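Entry 14. Ran structure prediction on the chain below.
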Amino acid sequence: MARMDVFPRQMLEYASQGEQSDAFFELGLSYCTGRDGTVDLIQAHKWFNIAASRGNVEAKRHRSELSSDMSKAEVIRAQKLAREWLASAH
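Output, structure tokens:
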């Protein structure tokens, strides 16, 4: 899938249409690079984590690399946010 230049809200709409892991991966990239605003590593890690849980292998690699640039507290916060999001999505 080619990268899409859309806003996070649009990516969530795309995810609801079935291409979840790719859409969540794109959200991670968006927050990681600041493509749609400010860089937010916690949100990036959260979305990479969610994408990885949906089987996206690239998300696993990005999440791992991103973790090395984050404090332990930031990683814990991102993981908590991912768990909360996953729990509310069902």
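Residues 8-88 form one domain. Will compare against last week's run tomorrow.
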